[in-house]
Amino acid sequence: MIGWIIFGAIVGWIASIIMKKNAQMGALANIIVGIVGSMIGGWIGSTFLHMPGGVTKFTLGGTILGIVGACILLAIVNAITGRKA
Fold first, then answer.
1. How many domains does the chain have?
2. Which domain, by its residues, includes 30?
3. In this structure, are residues 44 and 65 in contact, taking their beta carbons and an 8 Å threshold?
């Protein structure tokens, strides 16, 4: 559980920097975006890339998929709220 929180914080922070939302997001938002983004990245990995299990281990591939998923999540939130990235 602690590992997922730390992983989510790192992934969410990197995604917020990529999407230029870093100054607007706090630590809790980064953690939530990172964890949910990792779930999205895991779904992408298992569905489209045929990676068994998606993001289930702390690997470079899982981290990259988590960051991609978090960026997708931030883009969707930005589209819904009408805010620019």
1. 1
2. 2-81
3. yes
